[in-house]
Amino acid sequence: MRDQTSGDGPAPGGPTPGDSAPGSPALTPKGEMRRRALLDGVLTVLEAGGPSAVTHRAVARAAGVPVSAATYYFAGRDDLLRAALRHATTDWARSFDRLERASLRDLAETLVRYAVTERGAARAQYELLFTAMRDESLREDAELWYSSLEHVLSRAGVPPDRVDVAALAVDGLIVRMLWRGEPATVAATERVLREIVGPTP
Fold first, then answer.
1. pLDDT greater than 60 at residue 139
2. Alpha helix locations (H) across 4-53?
3. Interval 22-63: pLDDT, tens
4. Which contacts of 194-199 are long-range, i.e. CB under 8 A and separated by 24 or more positions?
5. pTM for the full predicted model
6. What element of type H or E holds 120?
């Protein structure tokens, strides 16, 4: 039986395991901390072993919490994967959104951090994007990633008629950075971005 008085999980009457829908009652601070630790744990397990390695036990071990916490918040493996994609996508969409005065230099710095220096989350997120091809419920979350990329390119001065093509090219650039580790510097990444984007107004 799940203990609803421990303070570790959702408060009585709160969200169901894995539920993060807008309007849901908030988790307790400790519960939210554990849930985020579990989502980060999913990304760690994904990076090391791919989607097949994601189990409640493996994720709980990576998060440093009891297995019972993983099963409390997330009903099954699919629930874990869906929530982790939303978690990773939202975090990186916010990174793009924080580039208020976006420039290609700013974008290059963000991409190097995303795909080179903190590559674990990026590798896991791309694993999850492939999962979205098979899981209709993840499509909207996957689209958020691409729309955020297009938005920051627009703010960097890419003309509207070239944004979608530029976003496709940057997506390919990220995959190359994850696969080959290059370009590995901000300066080199900015040069590639300028070639992708072309002249801007």
1. yes
2. 29-49
3. 334 457 888 888 998 999 899 889 888 888 898 999 999 999
4. 194/104, 196/166, 196/169, 196/170, 197/104, 197/153, 197/156, 197/157, 197/158, 197/162, 197/166, 198/162
5. 0.71
6. helix 119-134
